[in-house]
Amino acid sequence: MTATEETPVRRRRSDATKAAILDAARERFIAEGYEGATIRGIAADAHIDPAMVMRYFGSKEKLFALAASYDLHLPDFTTLPRERLGESIMRHLLNLWESDRTLVALLRTAVSNEEAAAERVREIWSGQVLTGLGKLFGDDRELAARRAGLVVTQLLGVVLCRYVLRLPPVVDLEPEEIVAWVGPTVQRYLTAGEP
Amino acid sequence: MTATEETPVRRRRSDATKAAILDAARERFIAEGYEGATIRGIAADAHIDPAMVMRYFGSKEKLFALAASYDLHLPDFTTLPRERLGESIMRHLLNLWESDRTLVALLRTAVSNEEAAAERVREIWSGQVLTGLGKLFGDDRELAARRAGLVVTQLLGVVLCRYVLRLPPVVDLEPEEIVAWVGPTVQRYLTAGEP
DNA sequence: ATCCTACGTCAACAACCGTTGACTCTCGGG
DNA sequence: CCCGAGAGTCAACGGTTGTTGACGTAGGAT
């Protein structure tokens, strides 16, 4: 058992290095996508040997999995006023994306790396968004899935055009302009009757 | 001038090979993106040596440029009934995407290859879509750009979720369901008053 | 002071990439 | 028949990638 105080949380010297690697990995994955980012480049940013990355994270794929794990921090939809749902969601996510580009990295990678990260995006959106919206539709899972899918269609479209492709007309829009224009779309997908 | 009949169009034996390479390149770029697709793989699909690809197309980038050129074949918007514009556009593009995945390849590449092909996507959407829609708004270019941007946001979102990420709820939708749900969104972005 | 463990470095591996130049084969025109 | 040009092959190059194992080293518990 070799006790050494037996504290369950034991500050290891390597924790700082691990964190530095993870930070560097996030930046590189955001900037260059999964294929483009290299272990060597990440290691250089963290001022460390590439072998350390392998030692602590096992493989590039596992490193990405940890660097790209993400929580959308979606609010509890049932507490929001039902008629302003679309607006609220749009504003919440826009705030998130403007300050944190992790999601952009995920999207980049999901598009370029096929199955590896596409599955992860599916987890986030089908998981977090779907289960979050599920409460709104009670037990009708089919309906919830369909409407959540449409919502995701519009939301990810904004991310793609604004942050990845950087289409000028979309980049030029003010955040509140986007909320005003796109919010009603989300609202309609959520609450409007079948067309 | 070394005449040899001097016919302007002269069937060369290599034309078939060139076409085979281009076909294989399209498929590979669609399936694996720019970085993922390899000259060796493309050459194998075309049943020839990788060196032939270089001989005929010069470089991987030039090959991609030829393989990924694309025309959306947008209809003349001014001839469509104004109140069914969104529906028409959505149906037109959906038909296109269901049968031809070149656009998906472009999107993949634009994301993984950063500036090289992102510029190409901007050309297509800011060019073809913007100038197509420009006729609807007369001389107000600012307005046309903003509305076209919003439209592209929704349209590319559908492409992304349905064909690239393959989110189950979006894949399961019938084309006409998408037209019925998303068409009105496009319509609103085009014709509704400022929010 | 000493030892053991964890931290970190270094050099190399095997695989794969785009690209190149020299080579052979195949034809069609003189 | 010849022969030269185009079609196609082959092997190799220089470079980069993820990954590995052997090697040194610092630091805290004993």
Automatic annotation (TrEMBL), chains A, B:
Give the stretches traversing the membrane. none
Q: DNA-binding: present as a keyword of the record?
A: yes
Task: Tell me which residues make up the HTH tetR-type domain.
Answer: 15-75
Q: Which domain of life is it from?
A: Bacteria
Q: Does the keyword DNA-binding apply?
A: yes
Q: Which UniProt keywords apply?
A: DNA-binding
Which positions does the record tag as DNA-binding? 38-57
The record's section on SUPFAM superfamilies has: Homeodomain-like, Tetracyclin repressor-like, C-terminal domain
Q: Which GO terms describe its molecular function?
A: DNA-binding transcription factor activity; transcription cis-regulatory region binding
Q: Which InterPro entries match?
A: Homeodomain-like_sf, HTH-type_TetR-like_transc_reg, HTH_TetR, Tet_transcr_reg_TetR-rel_C_sf, TetR_C_16
What protein does this entry describe?
Answer: AcrR family transcriptional regulator
Source organism per UniProt: Phytomonospora endophytica
